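hey m, so remember when u said the tokens were messed up on ur end? i reran from scratch. heres the input so u can diff it against urs
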Amino acid sequence: MNVEVFLSSANVGEEDVKDRTVVVIDVLRACSTISTALHHGARAVLPVADMAQAGKFASNLDPSMYLLGGERASEKIEGYHLGNSPLEYTKATVADRTIILNTTNGSSAITRAREAQHLVVGCLLNAGRVVAFAQKAGLDLTLICAGQDNRVSLEDTLCAGLMLYRLWGGQEPEAASDTAHIAFTQYRHDRDHLETALRRCNHARYLETKGFGEDVDYCFRIDALPVLPYFADNRLALIDEAHEHEALKAMDVAG
């Protein structure tokens, strides 16, 4: 299995994801929010790249059936129902609703990867579930770190490194790409004091100053939500083992 890592989503193109399993990683906070919303019963999450696309999706849905969620500069967008804090996406709030999600980094990264053979959302909360799916899919793999404002973010890089460490059984292959080597090596260096490394991340410290310290605590829980948000038909929804088997079987038939 060939593995590539993008440390920022800024330069991801269609050829980078075509015929591959792709994992978009945004630990703080979009992918953690998506995983939480679906775990708490949201029908689906529609990731969008900008305000215009969010409005287009909303205009085609019954207002009683959707919620607009998103942020700019980490704060809830004016007029939206929810921000980008996973703690807002409780069962009482999101059950049976469709979430239109518009965030600075994560949702736009997902839209860039939409042409992947398999596209899933990953974070620390569901890292183990994501790795298990990638192994079953057996395709070449691309990990896309959403990053922060087109720059590298340490928390996403460490999450990618954790996934690679598990995927490779702790042993880096000789043919690893430069960026995969960076992510793997950074995680291996920090894994014995991972909590400390994560908390010194620029965005974690920034969120703390904005009053989102509980979000940081929540998003840094490893394997707390063994869910797999899977992208199809412009939306992310949970895929269980039965539907996962169907998705992989369909790929085999198509191939």
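this time it looks ok to me. The radius of gyration is 17 Å. if urs says something different then somethings off w ur setup not the seq
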